[in-house]
Write a structure and sequence with these properties.
This protein is mostly helical and about 210 residues long. It has eight helices and no strands. Helix 1 packs across helix 8 (about 175-205). The N and C termini lie far apart (about 55 Å).
């Protein structure tokens, strides 16, 4: 019965699951791409001779790293519309900003861990020719953010877990849609993790 219900759900709501996966991957991609740029800039600030810049960067990374992501999502979801009412930011935009800010803090730690000076950080991280220095870490962050986007379903932004809530509400089924969502998450993140391992080996062999 469980298997039959799961297959029926997959046939009937397959497009919904695909749409949810698309939204999830889009959130992760935007978050990591912009977060990488923010992370590089923050790393430069933390290595700056200016005490003010170092302090700002340190406070930013410590606050983001030491508070729950869900709290940050709530904060930006309710705060941004009040700060920028003229822009009429969508739920998706507010959640994306929160994920970008979160990812930026973690990517700044990756940049710092390379132990580079300010000039070297700019040359080796920001510039495209040294992209491979942080590429594996970016890919790992992408995998992590892909899973963390499940928290965005709290705000119904269309991700995989949002689709679960919608489908479960329509069908009154709980376990079956969870199985499908779980399999999708596993296949996507497991595949990406294996590809990252291959990428890291190739990068090491090129050095």
């Amino acid at each position: 019965m469980l298997f039959q219900n799961t297959m029926k759900l997959l046939q009937k709501y397959g497009i919904n699951f695909l749409n949810g996966l698309g939204t999830t991957l889009l959130l992760a991609l935007i978050s990591v791409a912009i977060g990488c740029v923010i992370g590089a800039l923050v790393a430069i600030m933390r290595l700056s001779k200016s005490k003010v810049l170092r302090s700002i960067a340190t406070v930013y990374t410590e606050v983001i790293r030491d508070t729950p992501l869900l709290l940050q999502l709530y904060f930006f979801y309710f705060l941004l519309p009040d700060i920028l009412p003229a822009l009429k930011l969508s739920k998706f935009a507010c959640i994306t900003v929160a994920l970008v800010i979160n990812s930026g803090a973690y990517m700044s730690e990756v940049a710092r861990s390379l132990g580079l000076s300010s000039r070297q950080t700019m040359m080796r991280i920001v510039l495209p020719q040294a992209f491979k220095n942080v590429l594996p870490a970016m890919c790992n962050e992408f995998v992590a953010v892909t899973k963390e986007t499940s928290l965005a379903s709290t705000f119904y932004v269309g991700d995989l877990m949002t689709q679960y809530q919608t489908i479960s509400g329509k069908t009154y089924l709980v376990i079956e849609p969870l199985i499908i969502i779980g399999i999708i998450y596993f296949v996507v993140t497991f595949t990406m993790s294996k590809l990252i391992t291959v990428l890291e080996r190739r990068l090491k062999s090129d050095d």
